[in-house]
Design goal:
Elements lengths: L1 H4 L8 H4 L3 H6 L10 H4 L2 H6 L5 H7 L5 H9 L10 H4 L12 H4 L28 E5 L2 E5 L29 H9 L6 E5 L8 H12 L6 E6 L1 H4 L6 H7 L5 E6 L8 H12 L4 E7 L7 H13 L3 E7 L13 H9 L12 E6 L4 E4 L5 E4 L3 E5 L5 E5 L21
Parallel strand pairs: 2-3, 3-4, 4-5, 5-6, 6-7, 7-8
Antiparallel strand pairs: 1-2, 8-9, 10-11, 11-12
Bound molecules: pyridoxal-5'-phosphate (PLP) and iron/sulfur cluster (SF4).
């Protein structure tokens, strides 16, 4: 496992590492300051030393609030408690409103459920032709490869499934999942998710990717993962060298707050980007975490610095026991209107609601089209100024002409 531990010493940006959490730890301000770097940088050590019980949590954070204390007693019944030491060190133990804390430390509010909350808010199980495969859109499937994550997000839309705390008993059957894709020629895009696919060993992941690549109609592969944020040590040069053999392969990460984008994370993302992997980010709009225009903008800008294109901003799903973390659509729209035009277009994600019950992702946008008829479109810009665009006449649709859609011999 030396390949995992020597990475940091070879980094040319060694000077910048002094700002990093490693320095924070060795300055004695964080926990685990006695753990040698060779262990700290080893993702398996991080996994073995996760915080998974109230006893551990209390020892590290004597200032647990009553809500957190009660929540952590009940943890592991619905969604497991699990936090990597690396990620835990991002928590400010003196700040009850710490945005990292709200994402991973259980709270008693999780046991309160409203009638409109669900265990499967996006209706995934009802769109599942084979266990572990969700086929909702015509040309792409969600392929769930594991129920494990490096840490558990309290608002997880797959709480029913991940960590297996609630007895869902997720058993992926790769053979059946791959058979379905092979026998369904409309599927051109496969999205590996879970749980976190990057918790599989390099070999297991490679075997999956190569079996998918062997299917002629599978054009596009992607991986949804929060590992670069929870466990950047896992993004090893060996993993990147393997992944780059399966292009076109995109990776969607999941980050919510600028504090998550540490030096370690930026370097891990740099390794993925250097392997030619386009990176996108998915955030969830969360109360106490990122439902503030300034925090959101700082996060989006930092993502660009990490070579990541913000992809989706999700309205928080109606997951059972998540009311304390859900922000309003009103606030989400307000934040969006403070982004478009006000900052780099590349930094602006698409805000979506995954329709309760299984309608899929629906974009929600601030209103820019004020009126539209056959003659004109009336639009407003980011400053609220109103403009008119004279509507054009429609010509003959392109695709009704032979050869209008490029034939595959050209590419
Ligand atoms: C989000 C999602 C996808 C991917 O959607 P894109 O908009 O293409 O990123 C595919 N399948 C399911 C079930 C999803 O939830
Ligand atoms: S990393 Fe993703 S799948 Fe895992 S707990 Fe968080 S939101 Fe859920």
């Amino acid at each position: 496992m030396t390949e995992y531990s020597c990475e940091s010493e070879e980094e040319p940006s060694g000077g910048r590492r002094s700002e990093s959490l490693k320095a924070f730890r060795s300055a004695g301000r964080g926990f685990w300051s006695d753990v040698p770097n060779s262990q700290w940088d080893d993702w398996r050590w991080q996994m073995r030393n996760r915080i998974t019980s109230r006893e551990q949590l209390e020892k590290l954070m004597p200032m647990l609030t009553p809500e957190e204390y009660a929540g952590s007693v009940l943890a592991n019944t619905k969604l497991a408690l699990g936090i990597t030491p690396y990620f835990f060190n991002l928590i400010d133990p003196t700040d009850e409103l710490c945005p990292i804390r709200w994402q991973v430390i259980p709270r008693i509010e999780e046991t309160t459920t409203a009638p409109w909350e669900m265990s499967d808010p996006c209706g995934e199980d009802s769109h599942s032709p084979v266990p572990g495969l969700v086929h909702r859109y015509p040309d792409r499937v969600l392929f769930l490869v594991t129920d494990r994550c490096a840490s558990y997000c309290r608002y997880c839309t797959r709480s029913r499934l991940v960590s297996n705390a609630a007895g869902y008993d997720f058993q992926p059957d790769f053979d059946r999942q791959i058979d379905y894709i092979r026998n369904t020629p409309t599927v051109r895009d496969v999205l590996l998710s879970g749980g976190d696919p990057l918790l599989l060993s390099d070999d297991k992941l490679e075997s999956l990717l190569s079996r998918l690549r062997a299917i002629p109609h599978v054009e596009f592969l992607r991986i949804g993962t929060r590992i670069p944020i929870f466990l950047p040590q896992r993004i090893t040069p060996a993993l990147c060298d393997m992944l780059r053999r399966y292009h076109p392969l995109f990776v969607s990460i999941h980050s919510n707050h600028p504090r998550e984008l540490t030096t370690e994370v930026r370097e891990a993302l740099g390794r993925l980007a250097d392997a030619g992997i386009p990176l996108g980010n998915q955030s969830v709009l969360l109360n106490h975490v990122n439902d503030d225009p300034e925090v959101m903008k700082a996060h989006l800008h930092k993502l660009l610095l990490c070579r990541v294109k913000p992809y989706y901003l999700y309205q928080c799903d109606l997951i059972a026991g998540s009311a304390h973390l859900r922000s309003s659509v009103r606030r989400g729209l307000k934040i969006m209107s403070q982004l478009r035009g006000h900052t780099t277009g590349y930094a602006v994600p698409q805000y979506v609601i995954d329709a309760p019950g299984g309608g899929g992702k629906i974009p929600v946008n601030p209103e820019y089209v004020l009126s539209h008829n056959n003659d004109r479109v009336v639009i407003r810009n980011f400053e609220g100024k109103v403009f008119e665009y004279p509507e054009a006449a429609d010509g003959t649709p392109m695709v009704s002409r032979p050869g209008a859609v490029c034939d595959s011999q050209l590419f």
